[in-house]
């Protein structure tokens, strides 16, 4: 009787042990699968239709690792050279940088991947602004340059003025806000603000331009925030949203009024919009002020980012 009871207990123990191992294995499998999914980086391919009009060419796909990202750029033949040569190359829009981005060696290759990732995003967001700008200019020409009360504006123009936080009836002042940020400048600021893609804020919230917010639902608490300060580093769903917000910040915030005025002057003089020149007017972007501007200009020059400012948006 005692042996039979011992045998039953042993069987029960073994069954329990097997069940526990199966449960642990299942949990680890689920956890691993969830982690892998959470590390996915979505991307889409934009192909050209006509003159620099980019449309979605394929359904959204994803990668998990930096090497896969490099492979995608190679597969679709996108590089700085193809971008600069104005070829009809495919633009790859990635949602984020992969979690293992910092493991890429050598550093030069990591920087190249950073540039390849940001170039199409900055270009496409600027192209959207140029499309808005062209629409305003065409309507203004048709109205012989007259100034109309906002009450007589077409609905699309009123919506555009709200989009760029403008309440004026003067279309010239609206156009001062509806303009591109030079690619060289956007790249340089992204590199500085994110440490060439290595910052914690970029990893956790796609915050590539270091923008602030006071909304606790939309921000990340800075590590070295002074006591009593409440600002947060704003997080974004993807790099495109972050870039769009950054450009709007320069185009609408009162701190960058001189930046916009100089850009308009350059437009009126038929000059190329130079990121290095316009960087002069961004001392309010950082508490480091003139030192920040100096670093921006140095980075633009040392990496030869000026070459990107000659890209045409058909404006």
Instruction: Report the β-strand fraction as a percent range.
Output: 5-15%
Low-pLDDT segments: 27-37
**CATH fold name of the largest domain, please?**
Lysozyme
**What best-fitting shape do the alpha-carbon axes yield?**
elongated
Query: What's the main sheet like?
Result: 4 strands, antiparallel
Mean pLDDT: 83
In total, the number of strands is: 7
Question: What would you say this structure looks like, in words?
Answer:
28% of the residues are buried. The strands form 2 sheets. Strands 1, 2, 3 and 4 form a 4-stranded antiparallel β-sheet that branches. A 3-stranded antiparallel β-sheet has the order 5-7-6. β1 and β2 form a beta hairpin. The N and C termini lie far apart (94 Å). The chain is elongated. α4 (107-142) crosses α9 (239-252) and α7 (183-194) crosses α12 (290-302). The model is unreliable at 27-37 (pLDDT under 50). It is built from 12 helices and 7 strands. With 315 residues, the protein is an alpha+beta fold. The chain folds into 2 domains: 1-38; 119-310, Lysozyme, CATH 1.10.530.10. The longest helix is centred in the N-terminal third of the chain and has 37 residues, at 2-38.
């Amino acid at each position: 009787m005692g042996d039979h009871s011992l045998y039953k207990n042993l069987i029960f123990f073994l069954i329990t042990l097997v069940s526990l191992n199966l449960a642990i294995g299942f949990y680890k499998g689920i956890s691993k699968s969830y982690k892998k999914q959470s590390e996915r980086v979505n991307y889409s391919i934009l192909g050209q239709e006509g003159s620099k009009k980019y449309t979605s060419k394929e359904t959204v796909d994803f990668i998990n690792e930096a090497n896969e990202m490099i492979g995608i750029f190679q597969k679709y033949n996108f590089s700085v050279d193809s971008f600069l040569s104005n070829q009809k190359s495919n633009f790859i829009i990635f949602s984020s940088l992969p979690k293992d981005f910092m493991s890429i060696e050598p550093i030069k290759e990591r920087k190249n991947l950073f540039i390849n990732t940001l170039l199409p995003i900055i270009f496409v967001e600027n192209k959207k602004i140029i499309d808005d700008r062209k629409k305003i200019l065409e309507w203004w020409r048709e109205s012989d340059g007259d100034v109309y009360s906002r009450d007589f504006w077409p609905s699309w123009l009123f919506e555009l003025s709200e989009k760029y936080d403008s309440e004026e009836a003067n279309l010239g002042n609206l156009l001062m806000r509806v303009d591109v940020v030079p690619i060289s400048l956007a790249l340089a600021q992204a590199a500085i603000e994110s440490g060439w893609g290595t910052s914690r804020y970029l990893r956790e919230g796609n915050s590539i331009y270091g923008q602030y917010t006071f909304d606790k639902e939309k921000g990340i608490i800075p590590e070295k925030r002074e006591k009593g300060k409440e600002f947060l580093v704003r997080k974004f769903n993807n790099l495109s949203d972050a870039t769009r917000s950054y450009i709007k910040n320069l185009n609408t915030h009162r701190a960058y009024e001189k930046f916009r005025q100089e850009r308009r002057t350059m437009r009126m003089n038929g000059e190329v919009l130079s990121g290095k020149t316009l960087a002069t007017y961004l001392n309010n972007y950082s508490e480091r002020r003139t030192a920040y501007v100096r670093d921006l200009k140095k980075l633009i020059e040392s990496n030869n980012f000026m070459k990107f400012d000659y890209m045409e948006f058909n404006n």
